[in-house]
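## Example pair
The file below holds two records. Each record gives the amino-acid sequence first, followed by its structure token line.
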Amino acid sequence: MKAFFSLIAILFITNSNAQKFDCSSTITTYQELFQARNIADAYDTWSLVRKNCPKQSEIVYTDGILILQYKIDNAANAEEKESLVRDLMKLYDQYNKNFPSTTTDFEVYKAMALHDNKMEATDEILSLLDNAFSRASDSITNANAIYTYFSLCHEKYKAGNQKFNAELVLDKYTLVNAMLSNLQNTNPDKANEYRTAQRGINSLAKDLTTCDNLATYYENKYQLNSDNNDWILGALTNLGDRCSAKPIFNKMAQNFYATKATSQSAYFMALASLKQKNFEEAIKFYSQSADLEANPQARAKIYYTLATGLLFGDKAKSKESLNKALQYDPTLGSAYLFLAELYANAADECGKTDFEKKAIKYLALQTAKKAIVAEPKMKAAADKVVERLASKSPSQAEINKEKMNGKSLTIGCWINETITFPAK
């Protein structure tokens, strides 16, 4: 009985002390100290909150990360630095223990604490990242962590580690590329970071991601993933234009398109058709891809690709496609320059007289000038075109002779444009 009352007394005292600790005001105190760069006192005060108020607020942990990182950056020696980094990793564990729903990717942060603070712990970093990517890849948004994970896997592969064979590293390549493509769409404000990471990963993997290797890899994995549209999208994206002649690309493109006709699925069908030299089908799918594309700039790019590629032999359709491109993206200076060249090359075809032929050159010149207004960075390239066409356009004396000052001339043919000449 005596022991029982002693236990009750201890619990009472402990509870009483906990009630006396004011978590909210102590948080405010260490925050003020930290802002004043009184780091030693801020750390000591924060440590009390960390101990006594572990579930008070996520602020305890987000602030603690900043405080500990400041101390790490200003550590007196390597031993102190490593001790602080290890403490930071413990903090991430505590953060996850007390706020698990918002810290599913805590192992990523532990790994990057080691990596970013240049700790010699490659295997530990890779192990932490491997756990995180296996368990919570949907929660990971850190572009540097995604790049680091693949680079460490690739490093093991290059070193001849039997666990990290070609197939496993291609598994990782497929995973991280799909993640980065998705993150570019869901986090447009950080799209450049994700594109940079993706370029870095593609550069690292170029020895492994040849068209033959990728085609074999995706052929072997296809049956298991034939109903997984996300996987197929990643595979088609990774194969891309450079590998779209491979039979597996065509097979997956057809599967993806059959599920749903979208701008993206139609685009893959266009690539597959093009590589099979089925040009009419390619034109059809490119046009459908453009029609289904919601982003005006992306739609314009598809129309421009059509105009300068598959439709190049049909000047009327090429012009129509260029005009559509400019309709959706008036800043696409390259479309004006290509249209100017189309006009210039049609002078003999569409001009009935010498003056009309020169007038078409003048139309081309004026079109090239629009490129400078639309896209000023293209001025140097456009100026060269303008200079070349100016010497082939009608002179003022020739305009006077034809009595066309301030008048207009309509050119038929496929051009179907009216040219207005300057007055005297």
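Second record, same layout:
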Amino acid sequence: MFSATLGELAGVTGRRSVRGVLLPSLVFCCLALLVVATGRGSAHAALHAWRVGSWESKVLVVAGFVLVLVCVATALGNAQTALIRLAEGHWSPPVRRTIGRLGLGHHRRLVRHADEASTHDRYPPRTRPHDIMPTRIGNALKAAELYPRLRYGIDAALVWPRLHPLLPDTFLTVLGAARTGLTALLASAFLSVLLAVGGAAYLWAVHAPTPLFLLCLWGGGLAAWACYRGALLRAVVYGQHLRVAFDLYRGHLLEAVGRPVGDGEDERAHWERLCLFWHRGILPHHVATPDRPAQPTPEPEPARTPPGFSPSISHLTAAAFAAAGLAGALTGGG
């Protein structure tokens, strides 16, 4: 949800754009060029061909590289919100019914058996299992989304676009930096997977040496895993900043709209009436209906697994990379 309502932070320029879009794109293009150059021969042969080539061919290569870099960076910049939603677990129905179901079962089991201190900023409360997402990043951001609702009765999707313009510049700088770190690592993880799969497929097709094929596939997969783990830590920090924004500045919004909390008035009921007015046009002087928790949708029973083993999407992804590497090494190595 926050990935859709915080889109205004994705358009930052300057150092944030370089860090979040241009740098991952540059690394990806350089590594892709290295894979293509070494696929049909050694790096030394590719360097020799560059040295003996004409200046016209060198200009064309550089121009083509810059054009590809600009295209990749532009596409990556426009897809930042989509990448966050993908990392959160907002998938199409077929994927949600298969891989998503596996992820939901895994994280629900983790929440049931974990202590409250280790999950309070990484998962929704265990009393709301229907809000658990199929990915770790999705759960961290969902926990931040639910915080204003549970503490103050605030619907974050309605209030955040109105609260954001009132935040001070210093806080916006910190919040933007946190989000830029999250999107940069997610972009790096996505490009690493793309390079691992696409580069390995190319190396397999041209019958490149097996060590080079495995290095591209497994090295890219390992880099994607490391970037995703880093993005998870950034998501937790980003969620903490969002909580702080509601804790410190929600009163500024009430003053801006001319409806401060009166003496002896319940703040939670006040926010619920205001959110009903913004969402459905119900006048604030009407009594708000109690906020009833959503009923969890009945979930099919998860597949039985051995005691102490809880398969996750990460386990399946690692197994898929390992199987693809072994199959490619046996069938297409040079």
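Notes on the second record: Residues 4-13, 294-307 have pLDDT under 50 and may be disordered. Residues 210-256 form the longest helix (47 residues).
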